[in-house]
Design brief:
The protein is an alpha/beta fold and 359 residues long. It has 15 helices and 15 strands. The two termini are 13 Å apart.
Length: 359
Amino acid sequence: MRVALVVERFEPVRGGVESVVWHVARGLVEAGDEVHVLTRRGVEAPGVRLVPLPVSALWQPWRVLAFSRAAARAAAAGRYDVVHSFTRTLHQNVYRAGGGSHADYLARRGGAAWRRAARRLSPRHAVLLAIERRVFADPRQTIQCNSEMVRREIAARHGVPAGRLVVIWNGVDLVRFRPPAARPARAAPVWLLVGSGFARKGVDTALRALSTARSRDTQLWIAGRDAPREASALASRLGVAGRVRFLGERSDVEALHAEADALLLPTRYDAFANACLEAAASGLPVVTSGANGAAELLRDGALVVDDPEDVAGFARALDRLEDPALRARLGAAARSVAERHGWAQHVAELRALYTRVRE
């Protein structure tokens, strides 16, 4: 097949959608497909042809619209069998709703009241919402959802019929993320939280759960690019500052997985938190909220607290995970789930979807 993948940045070193497209492109090439990546900025990859789209990076609302127009022109000129967009563009065969429903994301992401009000007035969010409405209303487009949660939200909010909504779970690098030979022996466990956007990821809930859990010795390590000032001040007020480490943005998350005893992610909204599947592949048990699409996939290797605001529920989960036998059992189950969702499986499911779209 001759396939076009659309993404603003095509880079292996970033997380999120960039990492997804990088793995998908390489997998399609290995399967024998001709792969072009339509991108504003990209890094060369073996067997992948980059199609640069010269779009100004100034003022995001304009950039998003300009990129969508440029991608549509390049897709039409390329005569592709399938055009698969991983970002908010208007014209493609398959649209990956990797961030879920943007309206649900805005409603549930949390943060200070003034920030929530500012988001409602933001031209950026207005543009993203408008593009989503047009994509979901276009009967020619298939919507790739990365969780059942996202499928349900889009169907309910936008009335998209079931036949256009396809769930393909995220993939994970099973070589990079794998259980270590042994974890450090400690008197008390270390919980790890990985994610940027501390308000949405529920860092405040994690700190409150740490402060109310039974143990006064467990630690919480937090990795993410956010400035830690507000979270650090909250940790001090809760009396847990000495048990919390802010690690900043890390490119060696797999090393943190080898040191930690469980992943804690009380997210207020995640279509599918890749951090959870990466932790699972590393043999870590996961504690997360029901507002995370990954929770549906990982239930055998996770403790799921339905309400992301349920501090007491997360504290009870941490209390349970002080049991090393339970951690070992859940970690093994988590790895077993992850092994069924490597990138090879993900690409195989995408190729089957592309075949259906072409018919």
